Sequence to fold (339 residues):
Amino acid sequence: MQIKVNEQYHSFGEKASLGSVRDRIKADADLLIVNGFPASAENVLSNGDQVVLIKRGETPGIEEFDALMTARHTPGVHATVKGATIGIAGVGGLGSAIAIALARTGIGHLIIADFDLVEPSNLNRQQFFIDQIGLPKVYALRDTLARINPHVRVTSCHLRLTPENIAEVFGHAQILVEAFDIAEQKVMLIENFAARFPDRPMVTGSGMAGYGPANTVMTQQVARNLYLCGDATTAAAPGTGLMAPRVGVAAHHQANAVLRLLLGESPDKEGKL
Amino acid sequence: MEIIFNGKAREIQDGICIQELLNQMQLDCMQVVVEHNNNIIPRQRLAETPLKNSDTLEVIHFVGGG
Fold:
């Protein structure tokens, strides 16, 4: 029978155990994963199983890295997403967290655009570090993404997005993520991307301020190609701030909506698009 | 005449354009995305897009924060 071990196919006799596969391919492995889930050496394998063998603490070679990093993915997901190009407009509280989630998922290419610099008031919710204060957010985030997954190609655009440059910056993005702070800018981005690319999906965030229940943050289809993540009502305003937990919930709704779109699933409900 | 507004039937004035309807409803067109019969309409075209009987209109209001 054929077993895929660390992204390479190998032949084994019927009823081979996980331990015997480990002993033949990577005897010093101390973390054994079968079809996305940790398993013990006594496990008997079946034809077509996907096995990942990891030695804890070892830095893998570049070829092996993809297989090891995505060992806990649902099988098949990584192969589908690694060819994808996703645009992210704004890399503040929403966009920085979305970019990190998508990089960990193994999306092949991220186009990130933002004019802003990292400042201390960002650090209550945005995925930046003290030693990045003063840097353009798109370059700071690019460096962070490279530390997580060097196989993700990142195109960083340090500029202010306008009606004139949106189609050029995101011309290759098959899905656009709206991750701005200001409502008028969210509308401007969506109108202009839709005018140029009416058949490409957009995933937007609206209503994630404060510390209301996380359960009111939802993903809804609000137009033919527009999915909205948030509670749709709670604005950032005097007396209602923006904080890491609820902004993070909305950001990960957006990242999951992107993943579901790439896998052909409907972002807002069970089942296919 | 009647249109479907955010999923519900709604009686509106005959021959009105989208901009006039938004004005009557006191919606700020800078903070809404308007989808008319499955197409998103840029704000500069709201005043030149008339509504017809049985049209579908989705008006999505956005709030700040991110």
Notes: The longest helix of chain B spans residues 18-24. Chain B has one helix and five strands. The interface with chain A takes residues 30-33, 35, 38-43, 58, 60-66 of chain B (CB under 8 Å). The longest strand of chain B covers residues 56-61.
